[in-house]
Amino acid sequence: MESYRIGFIGGGNMARSLIGGLTAGGVDSARISVAEPSADKCGELTSHFGVEAVIDNITVAANVDVLVLAVKPQVLREVIVGLAPHLASRPPLLISIAAGVRVASIVRWLGQPLALVRAMPNTPALVRSGATALFANAQVTEGQRSRSESIMRAVGQTLWIDDEALMDTVTALSGSGPAYFFLFMEALEQAASELGLAPEAARLLTLETALGAARMALSSDESPATLRARVTSPGGTTEAALEVFAKSDLTALVARALQAAHNRSDELAELLDRDDGP
Question: Which of 150, 186, 190, 221 is the most buried (most CB within 10 A)?
Fold first, then answer.
């Protein structure tokens, strides 16, 4: 990664994951600074990562090339309005990881069209296995796109989208998606326990099966449908289970679930877009 200074506004879990991934990937901790309102957390960040951590947002924003906005969506407007006058003379590239807050809202709060990337990471980023969708406004240069991608790759895979409206679909799929898989794993564990397996055994077999299936899918160029067909013998146990899913129209159920999440993402974005806040 090229040499530039990175600042974080907010030192919560996602910021900590990014900082940990960056430093583990070879970024000098001296290039990273964090603004965190809790003095105790500032001390923890410095002690754990060796980064500069202060309670003042402006101090961090004034001395970095990339500023990651890692605060809760509900407080982002207040943070940006406070920073806006101090970003005009030497504006950094802004990366917002605040879920649901649209680029147009952030630009309006800034009062000027600065280079801005909206990122939607998901919770597996906490274990550096995340999937992050990125959207850049027109002010972002190719070099800044590369910087954004490098930073977010510290916690997993990245994908650029050209239409910000698709962020609602991203939220429904990968943002909320880990919960869907946790629910399915929960159901598998419970069903296996009811069929006689010890809870510990049911949990281990469920988790390793989920991990193995994901690894197989990632390492293959073939579709999930093809991979599923390969492990489904005619008249066998897998086919018997899949027929139950088919009779319950699992595909349609998943489609309705994603549509509901998509719609709610759009509704929340509308609330956050209001001038008077959510």
Answer: 150
Q: Which pairs count as long-range contacts for 256-262, CB under 8 Å and 24+ apart, including other chains?
A: 257/180, 258/169, 258/172, 258/173, 259/172, 261/171, 261/172, 261/176, 262/168, 262/169, 262/171, 262/172
Residue 184's φ and ψ, nearest 5 degrees, are -65, -40
Token digits of residue 202: 């049911």
Q: Per-residue b/e over 90-128, b at no fewer than 16 CB within 10 Å?
A: ebbbbbbbbbbbbbebbbebbeeebbbbbbbbbbbbbeb
How many C-beta neighbours within 10 Å does residue 178 have? Answer: 15
Answer for the pair 116, 106: CB distance below 8 angstroms, yes or no: yes
Encoded amino acid at 236, one letter = G
Q: What pTM did the predictor assign?
A: 0.92
The whole-number pLDDT of residue 200 equals: 98
Fold of 176-247: ProC C-terminal domain-like fold (1.10.3730)
With beta carbons less than 8 A apart as the criterion, state whether 100 and 269 touch.
Answer: yes
Mean pLDDT to the nearest integer, 47-63: 97
Tell me the pLDDT band of 89, cut-offs 50, 70 and 90: confident
The dihedral region occupied by 20, where left means phi > 0, alpha psi between -120 and 50, and beta the remainder, is: alpha
Q: How far apart are the C-alpha atoms of 116 and 126, rounded to whole Å?
A: 23
Q: Is 92 helix (H, G, I), strand (E, B) or coil?
A: coil
Phi/psi for 38 (5° steps) reads -90, 120
User: What is the architecture of the domain spanning 6-167?
Assistant: 3-Layer(aba) Sandwich (3.40)
| pLDDT score of 278 more than 70 | no
The Cα-based distances of 91 to 83, 110, 190 in angstroms read 11, 11, 53
Residue whose C-alpha is closest to residue 70's, from 121, 30, 20: 121
**pLDDT tops 60 at residue 277:** no
